[in-house]
């Protein structure tokens, strides 16, 4: 796995994390309603579920790609289309925070974050298509471990930061006034990355 591929995957994942969705909603809502500690528990739950998805995608898809070498290009195209769809959704955003049910504190917040990500039908599509950029039949165990560690750490750091920020009323008010521009910026970058992934797929 080359460093360029690794940075591409981490960049795409960072933008996907920033883009508001169910995970973002449950962490922010938990932090607002139940406080900072509960928000951090919810963030840990989301990151744990992401770790499971990454592991399943890496192990399972490596076997599939070994049997069907041409599938990698198909998945890359699907991934590019999915990133483009995310980008368009961000560009169409009105800058509103997604709704979510209030979660309780402690371990219940962890379970809420965990299940929100694990039961999201788009999660496997996302990880399967994005990770196909890096997966090769002979991918070293060290590369798999590095990829898993970085993606989970990136997820945990982002959602922990979200929990910390959204437990502050002042930060929440500031972000609400600027969320539409954040969404549009993320959307534009996602479209650029979608184009880059599609170009890699047709080479």
UniProtKB/TrEMBL annotation:
Protein name per Swiss-Prot or TrEMBL: LysE family translocator
Highest classification ranks of the organism: Bacteria, Pseudomonadati, Pseudomonadota, Betaproteobacteria, Burkholderiales
